[in-house]
């Protein structure tokens, strides 16, 4: 403006230098959810063993009372940058003996031989981690752990890396052009007036996402994911490109730790397909997909007795069978009990049998008085359980009395039918004269024709 008004040679324009690191990154404040995650990482790392680099020298002999636990004088900061820009995490730690320094990304230790990161420790306790050109994979939590025999201490810095799109800011020019900075007036004179607003927001980035799932029909399905972004992204779920609406079987939940969940209960065949979770905010959107396979539900049918146990009696010493018939899907397991005692295995005398057609039998060889009592058979499968009970009586074998060889005498019948004894038709006994009682005998002069 001064040159246009006064001429190119009449004015000198002074531009204040911008620090390189300030131009490359911006410090920001993490949310409460991210702070809880950072605290959890630090708590775990301070209590887990770490891998010592081979070139690290052991601590010298320092008296315990003279040692000082590590302490951070300058802690790591949180940065948000664009893809391709450099970033440096710096801290300063003191302690006696001099603490060993370990770096971690999202809880995983970074090797000093890593080519992507440059690790440096100065004699005054200043430690730094630098990435010359950040990528989207560098997004995460960076933790520095300082340890000596007196204790451990850690601090964490959050790095958010935003992808550069056509409407966003381009990566900073290379160091070969020291004066190639974006003009200060571009934010006002540029046709794209939304550019400064774009720099203050960060597109969603999924920190956690599930893979493909196979769930049995009728069971519960839970899909968990975690996303970062500024402002906080809105999440929507789709099934084969159609929005998933919340109802009694589909619920969308958000836990305090920032984990979003889609819960389906019970799962049906209609729930199978490709699920897509879309996270959207003012800076852009991100998505992931997975396939849900619903396995067919097994046809369950509770056991039912087709033929029940029957009360049975048997003579002492004889074999006896207690049998029934049961059906169910899947085929039920059979359990026997006598009174309150379970019959767990077969013996030579008492054996349990079951065939594929549902016939169940308890066979007792040579029943005794001790075998008498109440027997219960139970059939159980995943769909239910059913039982039935019957009584077994064992009685002493009775002896049939010997029959007399002397034939029974019966009065001759006055009819045309012969007399019947308990052994059948006895013609001889019916027609012998001596078989007739004296008081029923006919007169000598009277003869019945039918008797003749």
TrEMBL record:
Subcellular location: Cell junction, Focal adhesion; Cell projection, Axon; Cell projection, Growth cone; Cell projection, Lamellipodium
Basic and acidic residues bias locations: 186-201
Gene Ontology CC: focal adhesion; growth cone; lamellipodium; podosome; ruffle; stress fiber; Z disc
Claim: Disulfide bond is one of the keywords in the record: yes
Keywords from the named record: Actin-binding, Cell junction, Cell projection, Cytoplasm, Cytoskeleton, Disulfide bond, Immunoglobulin domain, Phosphoprotein, Repeat
Record keyword Repeat present: yes
Record SMART domains: IG (SM00409), IGc2 (SM00408)
Residue ranges constituting the Ig-like domain according to the UniProt record: 70-154, 204-295, 303-393
Pfam family, one: I-set
MF annotations from Gene Ontology: actin binding
Biased composition (Low complexity): 167-177
UniProt region (Disordered), positions on chain: 1-27, 165-201
UniProt subunit comment: Interacts with EPS8. Interacts with LASP1. Interacts with VASP. Interacts with ACTN. Interacts with SORBS2. Interacts with PFN1. Interacts with LPP. Interacts with SPIN90. Interacts with SRC. Interacts with EZR. Interacts with RAI14.
Record family assignment: Belongs to the myotilin/palladin family.
Cross-referenced PANTHER family: IMMUNOGLOBULIN (PTHR47633), PALLADIN, CYTOSKELETAL ASSOCIATED PROTEIN (PTHR47633:SF10)
Protein name, as recorded: Palladin
Species this chain originates from: Camelus ferus
Taxon lineage: Eukaryota, Metazoa, Chordata, Craniata, Vertebrata
Gene, per the UniProt record: PALLD
């Amino acid at each position: 403006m001064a040159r246009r008004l006064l001429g190119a040679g009449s004015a000198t324009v002074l531009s204040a230098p911008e620090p390189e690191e300030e131009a490359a990154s911006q410090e920001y404040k993490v949310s409460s959810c991210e702070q809880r995650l950072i605290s959890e990482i630090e708590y775990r790392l301070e209590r887990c063993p770490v891998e010592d680099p081979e070139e690290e020298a052991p601590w010298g002999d320092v008296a315990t009372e003279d040692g000082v636990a590590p302490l951070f004088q300058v802690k790591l900061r949180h940065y948000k940058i664009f893809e391709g820009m450099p970033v440096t995490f710096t801290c300063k730690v003191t302690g006696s003996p001099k603490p060993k320094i370990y770096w971690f990304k999202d809880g995983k230790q970074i090797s000093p031989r890593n080519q992507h990161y440059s690790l440096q420790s100065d004699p005054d306790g200043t430690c730094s981690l630098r990435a010359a050109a950040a990528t989207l994979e560098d997004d995460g939590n960076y933790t520095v752990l300082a340890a000596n025999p007196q204790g451990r201490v850690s601090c964490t810095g959050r790095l958010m890396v935003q992808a550069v799109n056509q409407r966003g800011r381009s990566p900073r020019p290379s160091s070969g052009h020291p004066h190639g900075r974006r003009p200060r007036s571009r934010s006002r004179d540029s046709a794209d007036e939304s550019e400064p607003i774009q720099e203050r927001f960060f597109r969603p980035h999924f920190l956690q996402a599930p893979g493909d799932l196979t769930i049995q029909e009728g069971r519960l399905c839970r899909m968990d994911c975690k996303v970062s972004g500024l402002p906080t992204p809105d999440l929507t779920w789709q099934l084969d490109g159609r929005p998933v609406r919340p109802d009694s079987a589909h619920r969308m939940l958000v836990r305090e730790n920032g984990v979003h969940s889609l819960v389906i209960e019970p799962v049906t065949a209609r729930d199978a397909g490709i699920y897509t979770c879309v996270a959207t905010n003012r800076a852009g959107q991100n998505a992931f997909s997975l396939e849900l396979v619903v396995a067919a539900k097994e046809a369950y049918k509770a056991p039912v007795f087709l033929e029940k146990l029957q009360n049975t009696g048997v003579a002492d010493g004889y074999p006896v069978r207690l049998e029934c018939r049961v059906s169910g899907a899947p085929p039920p397991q059979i359990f026997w009990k006598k009174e309150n005692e379970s019959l767990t295995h077969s013996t030579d005398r008492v054996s349990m049998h079951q065939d594929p057609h549902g016939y169940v039998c308890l066979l007792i060889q040579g029943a005794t008085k001790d075998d008498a009592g109440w027997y219960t058979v139970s059939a159980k499968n995943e769909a239910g359980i059913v039982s039935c009970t019957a009584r077994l009586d064992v009685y002493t074998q009775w002896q049939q009395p010997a029959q007399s060889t002397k034939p029974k005498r019966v009065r001759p019948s006055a009819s045309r039918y012969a007399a019947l004894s308990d052994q059948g038709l006895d013609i001889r006994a019916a027609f012998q004269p001596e078989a007739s009682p004296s008081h029923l005998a006919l007169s000598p002069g009277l003869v019945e024709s039918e008797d003749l």
